[in-house]
Each structure stands twice: as structure tokens, then as C-alpha cells.
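Fold sample X.
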Amino acid sequence: MFYRILADIIVIIHLAWILFLILGAFPGSKYRTIKFLHVSGLVFASVIQIFDWYCPFTHLEVWLRSKHDPSLTYKGSFIIHYMEKIIYVEIPANLIFTLTILLVLFNAWFYLGKRRA
């Protein structure tokens, strides 16, 4: 039970991290520390996508779930696994890669545009 609770907490943290990567430019435009964390996170997410790696949160969650009940583990990406459960459609890895690149480009435009203003 303890491992399952920890795994669920990791899922919540993972979701919060993804939301931070999507929306972090807004507070990042006001606070330098948040901007540094946000840009660093975007670089890390890009590297993960380029090399087709999985996020460390995914590995941690799968490990914790395997400690609780090995039948609860899954293979593959955190996003694909949980998005499939929400919309019942498989999300291709190349779509996640494309969305990551678009997110990075949007944030670059956002930060550079703020600098000019």
C-alpha cells in the first residue's frame, strides 16, 4: 500500500511538472528563478524527446508500482499511458515529439518577445 501511495504521488508530481512546462513562461516572465527552472526543464524535455528516453518520473512510478503489485506496471511513456486512459486513443510518440518542439518554440518566442518589450 505504501508503494502505491508513493507511485500516485509521483503521478501527481509528474502531471504538475508537465503543466509547469506548458504554462511556466507566464510566471517565468516575471521571476528569474522560475524562468531558469522553466527553460532548464524545456531543455531537459527536449533532450528526452530527441533521444527517445523516458522521464525519470516514469521510471520511478513504474518501479514503485512494481514494488506494490508487478501487474500494475506498464511499458512506455507516462503521457501515452495516461492519455490513453483518458481518451482511449493511442498517441503516437512522434506527435508528443512534435508538441514538445512546438512548446519549446512558443516559449522561446514568448521569452524573447518579453525581452524586446
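Fold sample Y, listed below.
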Amino acid sequence: MKKAKLPADTNKKAFSIVELATSEDKELPSDGKNPAAVALGRLGGLKGGNARAASLTPKKRSEIAKKAAAKRWSK
């Protein structure tokens, strides 16, 4: 469950906190995503990096790593 974003204004923030603390059946707003689809997408994401690394040759992986390091250190 995601944490509710509170307003920047102090008075509105205080009102929101009191409202959250005193509400009994009020649930935080849903982000509208299907939980099953989110889980399935996460599974694919967890597999993706390892699968890509396994399919690359050591030379290509080294080139990618060097390019990434150069980009990080160029800033």
C-alpha cells in the first residue's frame, strides 16, 4: 500500500493527518493498476537483466560497462 501524499500547506497537511487518523473505513486511493498485471510485469523485469547478460558476449558486456562508466564519470 502506498503512502498518501500530504499537501505542502501546513494547515491542509494537519487536516489531512487528522482525517487519516480518525477515519475508520476510508482506504488510501488506489493507483488503478491491476495487481496481477503488476506482479507479472515484475516477474519479467526480474528475469530481464539476467537473460540479457547471459545472451551477451563478454566483449559486448565489457563495451557496455565501459560506456556506462565513461558516462557516469563525464558529469
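Sample Y note: The chain has a mean pLDDT of 84.
Also: The chain is about 65% helix and 0% strand.
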